[in-house]
Every structure is written in C-alpha cells, then in structure tokens.
From TrEMBL:
Signal peptide: none annotated. Transmembrane segments: none annotated. Gene3D superfamilies: 3.10.310.30, inorganic pyrophosphatase (n-terminal core). This is Recombinase RecJ.
Length: 339
C-alpha cells in the first residue's frame, strides 16, 4: 500500500491521538454507500469501546439506501444540519473534499479544533489537519479495520460486520480490480471476527426492490454501445423513476448489468436527479475511468468513478457518449458487442 503525497500521518499515530481525545463527529460523503456508512459505524463502535462520545452525521439530510439498514447503529445517524454538538474532533471517512461533505457538514468540521481524514480516494487537495489516504486500499473500511486493531479494542461483532460490508460493496463482491491479496486477508480476518458473508450478501445483493428491477429493465432496454462495443451506456429520467415507483438508491445496482455484457470494458449509467444529471462509470480492465470523470468535474477510483452534469438529460447523453467514444477505444473484433 502507498499513501498519497498529501498524507501527513500514519494509522498508528491516529490511533494514539484518538485515545487522547473525545467528542468525535464522524462524517462521510453525500449519497453514502456501503463503504462510507460502514466506515463511520465501524469506527464509532471501536471508539465507543474506549468510552468516547461519538456521533455519526450524514453529510446531507437524505434517505439511506434501504439495503444498508441492517447495519448496527444506522438508525442513530444524524443529519449534519441538525446536529448541535458537542464537537471537538471531526473525522471524515471515505471522502476527500469539502464539496463532498456538503455545507452543513463543512460548517461542523470548522467548529472542531481538530479535523482528520481517513480515505482511499486520491485527490490533490486536503480539507483536514491530519490526512491519511491510501489509494491502494480496497475500501476505507480496511483502513478503519487496521485503526481499530491499533486501538486495541475487540473487533468482533459490530466492527467486523460494518468493515466487511464496506469491503464487499466497494470491491463489488470481490469482483473489481481493487480486489487484491490485502483485501482478501482483511476479509478473512473480518469473517473470523464474526462477519457473516452470506448474511451481508442477502441483505445487500439479494434484497432489491421490485422498482429497482423494473428500472433495470428500462435501462437495459435502452443500452447504447460504442467504440466497437468497448463501452455500454444507458440512462434513466425522472419519469422513469416515477413510472417504476423507484427512489434514487434503486438505480445503484443497475450499472453492474451494463458492465457484465461480454466485450464491454467500460460501463456508464446516467440518471436524472432534480435539475442535474448524475453519472457513474465502471471499468473491468485497466481503463482509468477516474480520469474521464475528472473531465466532467467528478472523480473516484481507476475502476469506479462518478460525476455530476448541470444540463438536460439529452445533453448529458450526447456529451458523455462523445467522451466515451473518444477515450475508451476498442479492440476491434475481440468479442465486441455492437448492440
């Protein structure tokens, strides 16, 4: 594992500091996923074993993905805009920038006399006093797992379950390119400590709502292929969500259906959300989709990234389709699907 140039501490030093402080506020990014929520709840459970006062806040006052509702402590998450304190130590997990924690959480971060970041998203800027970012880590929960070990607490039970959930979701059930030996060793440790892989799998990957499945049918039906079948893209409008009776989280699993098509190297899913369009990118080879996302003001990992466009859905489809055609390329004739 290799940390970023912005990193100015290590996990052992962070663990030692955590032991000396109190009144922790733990925050993740907007639209939190399994790694984000899992990191918050796992670190909170670890710190509470030391008798610390800990509150996990939501960057925005928005619904949590129903598939994550099984995680212990999830019902105690407080929207940052509603939290009134105390707040001395702010810990950002799985989030690299102020923009990704939204205004209320950023204001809360500024109220604290010390801010810390533990993350695996590599960016060129920092938003905290202490920074530990390891882009080689398969998930932020792997880093939290290590911190918990350095704290000397009992990692069985809630800590193991929350950390495993973040790891299995950020590796796409250990299918993505970030699945390495370190990730598998950490997963084994978490399972040995009590995390139940079958239980987590049922809760997250075998627990989709009917509206989510209906949305997938719409998205698959309008899939568009380009660059000789090297990429697949699709999109969902507000009307699609309304017709299916779906919510935002129902669209999250759909990109995996696009990514699964033979010959596809990069998948892109666009969804209309209010007056903006959210885009998700996934790669199943060495294509760096984070670079592509950054051209649209977004970011992420080499194999998984996202962005937001302030334009109409039709404009977004045309813009992203052109960018994918230009950057992805194709190996002509090698099992490509032409749609």
């Amino acid at each position: 594992m290799s940390v970023t140039p912005q990193t100015n501490t290590d996990l052992a030093a962070l663990a030692a500091m955590f032991k000396q402080r109190d009144d922790f506020v733990l925050c993740g990014h907007v639209s939190p996923d399994g790694d984000c929520i899992g990191s918050q709840l796992a670190l909170a459970a670890a710190l509470r074993q030391l008798g610390k006062h800990v509150t996990c806040v939501l960057a925005k006052n928005e619904p949590i993905d129903e598939r994550l509702r099984f995680l212990p402590g999830v019902d105690d998450l407080v929207p940052a805009e509603l939290y009134e304190g105390p707040a001395r130590t702010f810990v950002a997990v799985d989030v690299p920038t102020r923009e990704r924690i939204a205004e209320a959480a950023a204001a809360l971060r500024d109220q604290c006399d010390l801010a810390v970041a533990i993350d695996h998203h590599a960016v060129d800027t920092t938003m905290t006093d202490l920074v530990y970012v390891d882009p080689d880590a398969a998930s932020t929960t792997v880093l939290v797992w290590d911190v918990a070990g350095l704290l000397g607490i009992d990692r069985s039970g809630d800590v193991a379950l929350c950390c495993y959930t973040g790891l299995v979701t950020d590796t796409g059930r250990f299918q993505y390119q970030n699945t390495d030996a370190a990730a598998m060793r950490a997963a084994a440790q978490m399972v040995e400590a009590g995390a139940d892989p079958a239980f987590v799998s049922r809760a997250i990957f075998q627990n989709r709502s009917l509206p989510s499945v209906r949305l997938e049918g719409v998205a698959v039906g309008r899939m568009r292929f380009g660059a000789g079948g090297a990429y697949a893209m699709s999109w969902l409008s507000l009307d699609d969500f309304e017709s299916a009776g779906a919510v935002k989280a129902d669209a999250e699993p759909i990109i995996d259906a696009l990514r699964a098509v033979s010959g596809v190297r990069v998948a892109c899913m666009l969804r209309e959300q209010g007056d903006v369009v959210r885009g998700s990118l996934r790669a199943k080879d060495d294509t760096d989709v984070a670079t592509l996302a950054r051209t649209f003001g977004g970011g992420g990992h080499r194999a998984a990234a996202g962005f937001t466009l302030e334009c109409s859905l039709d404009e977004a489809v045309a813009l992203v389709d052109a960018a994918l055609e230009k950057t992805v390329g194709a190996k002509a004739g090698e099992g490509a699907c032409t749609g």
